[in-house]
Amino acid sequence: MKKTNTERFDETLEVSLVRGDILYRLQRKVGLIPADGLGVVRRAVFWSLFAWLPIAIWGWYTGRALSPAVVQEPLLGHFGVHVRFLVAVPLFILAEATAHELTTKLLPYFVQSGIVPEAEVPRFREALGGIVKLRGATRPWIAILALVVAVLTVSDVIQQSHEIIWAIGGDVAVFRPGFGALWFLYVGRLIYLTLLFSWLWRIVLMLLLFHRIAKLDLVIVPTHPDRAGGLGFLERFPKAFAPVVLAAGAVFASRMAHDVFYHGVSVQSLRLPMIAFVVTAVALFLSPLLVFAGPLVKAKKQALLDYGALVSRHGRLVSERWIAGIDVKDDAILNAPELGPVADTVSLYEAVKAMRTLPLGKASVVPILLAAVAPMIVVLAIQMPVKDILKMLMKALI
Predict the structure, then answer these.
(1) What's the whole-number mean pLDDT along residues 288-299?
(2) Are 272 and 204 contacting, i.e. CB atoms less than 8 angstroms apart?
(3) d(Cα 297, Cα 194) in Å, to the nearest integer?
(4) Given CA atoms 141, 143, 149, 152 in this order, what sign does their dihedral have?
C-alpha cells in the first residue's frame, strides 16, 4: 500500500539551525549544555554575568559606577555596556531555543505537505545534509573569530571608544585603561560579537538552504488557501530571529540614548539612523524567504494561463448550453463536482490572481518589524510624546 505524505514523515529531516555547531559542541564539552536539551537559560545567565559582573564590581570598587565626582560619565550612564551583556547576550542565547524548535518542526513539513514530491526527497535530503555539514564545519567559525578579533583590534579602537571613559585614568588625555575597560573591550565584547556574528552566519545558512530547496521541482499549488502556493508555513521562520533583532536594536538604541542624555543630541537628528537600522534589519532577516520568489512567480504565471483556459472553456460550454441552446456533448467539465458552477470556477481563477509571489505576510514581517522598532521608540520617548513618535514612524515606514 502506498504511503501518504504524513506516513512518509521522517525524523531524520528534523535539522536544527543551532544544535551541532562548534559553539554548541564546546559548551556541551564544558557542561553548559545538558545532554537532553539546549540549556539556554543556564547559558544566558552564565555568559551574561561572566561578561558584565567583573565590570560592575570593578566600577563599584573604584567608585566609577555611580559617582560623577570621580568620572564625568560614570559606568551607570553608559547604557550600551549594560544592554550588551544584560539584554543582548541573553536574547542571543534564548533565541537559539526558538530557532531550534522552528527548524526541526518546519523543515520536515516540506515533505510532509507534499511541496517536495517523493521523487525530489533524495535531493531535499542532500540539501539538508549540505547545510548540516556547513553548520558543523570549522572554517566558517575561524572566519567569524578572525572577524571578531579584527573588530576588537582595529586601529585606535581603544582611544576612540567613548564607552570606556568611565574606566580610564583621571586625565582623559592620558590613556590608562583600568581592569574594567580591559574586561569590557577584550572579554565582554568578545562574547557579544561572537554571538552576534554567529547569528549572521545562521542567516547565511538559512539563505543557502532555502536557495537549494527553491531549485527543487516543488509542487506549488496556486489555489492554496494560504495564498502562497502552499509555502505559507515559511512565514513562521522569521520569528526565530525576532529576539536577535531586538538584541541588536537595543544595543544600537542604548548608544543613542547615552548621547541624548549626556551630550545633548536631539532625537530628531537620530531619525535617519533609526530608519536605516529598521529597514536593514527587516531586509536582512527576511532575506532567506526571498529566494522562493522565482518558483512562485513562475508557478503563478503558468497557473494564470492554465486556469484562465479552464474558466474560458467552462464558461463557453455554459453559454452554448444555456444561452445559445446548443446540445453540448462534451459536458464532463460541466458536470465535474470539483469545479461546480460558474461562480466556483471564477473563484479558482481569482484565487490564482491573489496568490503572492513571496511567502511573506504579517506573521513574518510584524515580529521582525516590532523587534527593530521597539528600542527606537524608547529613545524617541526621551524627548517626544509617544503619540508623536508613532505618527512619525508610520509616516516613515509606510
Answers:
(1) 94
(2) no
(3) 38
(4) negative
**The one-letter amino acid at 99:** A
Query: DSSP letter at 7?
Result: T
Instruction: Say if residues 152 and 193 touch (Cβ distance below 8 Å).
Output: yes
Could you tell me the maximum CA-CA distance found in the chain, to the nearest angstrom?
A: 101
The pTM score is: 0.85
User: Which DSSP helix (H) or strand (E) runs through 147?
Assistant: helix 139-153
Coil vs helix vs strand at 136: coil
The string of pLDDT tens digits covering residues 107-124 is: 999 999 999 999 999 999
Which of the 8 DSSP states describes residue 318? H
For the chain, domain boundaries: 1-219, 299-353
> According to the 3-state scheme, what is the secondary structure of 163-178?
HHHHHCCCCCCCCCCC
Q: Could you give the CA distance from residue 384 to residue 362 in angstroms, rounded to a whole number?
A: 28
> C-alpha grid cell for residue 288?
532567506
What pLDDT does 78 receive?
84
φ/ψ (deg, to 5) at 356:
-80, 150
Cα atoms found within 13 Å of the Cα of residue 211, Cβ hemisphere only: 10
pLDDT digits (tens, 9 = 90+) for 367-389: 999 999 999 988 888 877 766 66
The three cell numbers of residue 275 are 530608519
Give the span between the Cα atoms of 183 and 297, in whole angstroms: 52
Q: Which of 310, 388, 387, 395 is CA-nearest to residue 348? A: 310
Question: Residues 129-143: what's their mean pLDDT?
Answer: 93
Q: CB-hemisphere CA count at 13 Å for 259?
A: 15
